[in-house]
Amino acid sequence: MTAGDYRLQIKDAGNRTTNYIFTVVKSKPVYPKELLNASVSEATRLTAQATWLAAQKGKKRVFEAYQQIAALAERYPPARVVRHALEQRARIPRLPKK
């Protein structure tokens, strides 16, 4: 997708409408080195990366975080928890800087 703000409107057969607004960003994230540790399982690493993305200032990467974790959540319970939190628009707090 091209970078920018998008609005998605879903209407059901009962004419109920839900609107979602999300932002597509063009730059690739620079993860902290701790989130790139190859000694950690891929599922754990991807879950941590998605959680970190969702917590970033301005919430510009929530959609990206959801995309990253959606399929993984089908087979990895911690990812399922994060996916559910993102679906509920839960606030994911940022960790304090060292």
Strand numbers in spatial order across the main sheet: 1-2
* Biggest sheet architecture: 2 strands, antiparallel
Helicity, as a percent range? 25-40%
- Structural class of the secondary elements? alpha+beta
Distance between the termini: 34 Å
- How much beta, percentage-wise? 15-25%
**What do the pLDDT scores average to?**
89
Radius of gyration: 15 Å
The helix-strand sequence is EEHHH
Question: Helical stretch count?
Answer: 3
Q: Rough shape?
A: globular
Q: Number of DSSP strands?
A: 2
Low-confidence segments, given as residue ranges, are: none
Description:
With 98 residues, the chain is an alpha+beta fold. The chain has a domain at 27-87. It is 35% helix and 16% strand. The protein contains three helices and two strands. Strands 1-2 form a two-stranded antiparallel sheet. Strand 1 and strand 2 (17-24) form a beta hairpin. The radius of gyration is 15 Å and the shape is globular.
List the helices and strands and how they pair.
Blueprint: E1 4-11, E2 17-24, H1 42-55, H2 62-70, H3 77-87
Antiparallel strand pairs: 1-2
Helix pairs in contact: 1-2, 1-3, 2-3
Task: Describe this structure in a few short sentences.
With about 100 residues, the protein is α+β, with helices and mostly antiparallel strands.
Properties at a glance:
single chain, 98 residues, alpha+beta, two-stranded antiparallel ribbon, 3 helices, 35% helix
